Amino acid sequence: MTAVLLSSLVVCWAVVFHVLGWTALYRESGGACGGSDCPRGLPTVLLLAFAFSFAGTLALSKALAVAGLRRGIAVAVVVGGVLAGLLPGLYGYQWIRGEQVRIASPLKGPKRLGIAWRAPQDRPATVKGLRGWSTGDTVVRVRTDGLSAYAVKDGAERWTVTAPVRASVCAQSAHPAKGVGLVAYGRHNKPCTTLAAVRLADGATLWKRTLKGEGIGKGIALGGGTAVSVEDGAVRGRSAGTGAEQWKRPVAERCRVLSVGASPARTLAVEECAAAKTDGLVTARLLALDTRTGEEQWVTKLPVESAGTAHVYSVAPAVIGYQETDERGVRAVLAFDERGQSRAAVPLSGRSGDLDIRLSPEDLKAEGPFVSGDTLVAAVQKPGDIVPQYVAGFSVRDGRELWRTKKLGHIGALALRGDGRVAAVTVGWPRSDVHVVDPGAKGAVSKATLGKEAPVSIDAEMLAVRDGYVVVNRYTDGEPPAFSLR
Question: Sorted alphabetically, which SUPFAM superfamilies does this protein's record hold (predicted)?
Fold first, then answer.
């Protein structure tokens, strides 16, 4: 009788592993996977399912033949063994799968999402979307011809701001600050010479300034109550509320600013300087200023010898992207400590894949990378793939890859949530999913599914808002300018 009971346990484990394993394979990988792309522990689960099936069936048939039990007793013993094996089988499955499975309900499918609202199509159809902003219960989509604000709850248009006659939006701050967004306007084939601050609660233009010289350089930024811009050979700080100039930091001769970023306490500027001699080397440095006063905090020389492009991804900690024109030069995301000392370099392209990140507003890349704690989080394209399908975390202390998710599908956009986690929306047939990645838990992923393909364009940005997300499509070809997922 003991042999019958034990073999019934093994049969139970076979059933549990088959049901949970094949369900997980369909739910997490669309029904198929291979090698390192398989979800954690799933190949082991399925192999054990077949092993338990073979061993358990063979052992049970032999045990019943040897025991010679009456039919009623045999059925009772088998049923008892199966019931006794359920809990150990369940916990064994969860132990093999690790953190990806929740004890409460391993069979429970992912959370369902829906499209709560869609903004009307752009009119005129020739306009192009730029970045989106989120502030409170409002999202703002900046377009070449102005700004449009939508209510997070239902998508109702709250206000619009139209660009000046014959002018287009030519620059904007990456983020709003204290309910204010910063934009710049310029005429066709003319410099970007009009700087303006817009109150996002009602669309009121707080101030406008006509700039000197060649107008806005590479970027504008908001840090607390200060508007930072590169103009007329200097980095300038203005009151975000009134536009009054508060400080000015001249750019050195033969130098130009490639990118700026700001927080309430610090402004970062990446400066590139032309060679003093015809056969000399280009130099570059990262400059940290006090956002409130313009006072220099530190300066760090960058290991650059040729012209390039740069982008400030994070101010605290200081993280920038740099790409030299020299193919053997610096092409990496660089991280620095609080004193400006170099800490880490994550190559844009390496043996394990390419970072899918923007180095300019024109790049058709996923938004990011984002910094969460001491982790740099970015979409990654594996060698041989043509689209990014993974999210990976890298240490900003030494550049090591700390973790990488399983294959998620074609990542259309990333968003940094208020809780420090990063959300990735996948695109393409047959459905779109939102994967929430937790950098603090070694990249553990939770998933919500839309059940159908989301209208994400080839150039999109996702904003984390209360109770969900708003996707802002910069380029539209039938897709809505913005839509809500929750």
Answer: Quinoprotein alcohol dehydrogenase-like
CB 4 within 8 A of CB 78: yes
pLDDT per residue over 85-102, tens digit each?
788 888 888 888 764 444
Q: What are the distances in angstroms from CA 277 to CA 22, 251, 273, 309, 329?
A: 67, 19, 12, 21, 20
- Across the beta sheet with 192-199, the strand order is 167-172, 180-187, 192-199, 205-210
How far is residue 445's CA from residue 312's CA, in Å, rounded to a whole number? 27
- How far, in Å, CA of 78 to CA of 85, rounded? 11
Sheet holding 216-223, edge to edge: 216-223, 226-231, 234-239, 245-250
- Reply yes or no: is the peptide bond before residue 317 cis, omega within 30 of 0: yes
From the CB of residue 73, how many other CB atoms can be counted at a distance below 10 Å? 12
pLDDT surpassing 80 at residue 221: yes
CA angle at 446 for the pair 85 and 453, rounded to the nearest 5°:
115
Place of tokens 């709250």: 158
Report angle CA 307, 308, 309 to the nearest 5 degrees.
150
pLDDT above 90 coverage of the chain, percent: 59
pTM, rounded to two decimals? 0.78
CA nearest to 176, candidates 214, 206, 156, 209: 206
Q: Are 182 and 131 in contact (CB under 8 A)?
A: no
- pLDDT tens digits, 143-157: 999 999 999 999 999
When the pLDDT of each residue in the chain is averaged and rounded to a whole number, the result is: 88
Q: Does the structure show a pLDDT above 90 at 70?
A: no
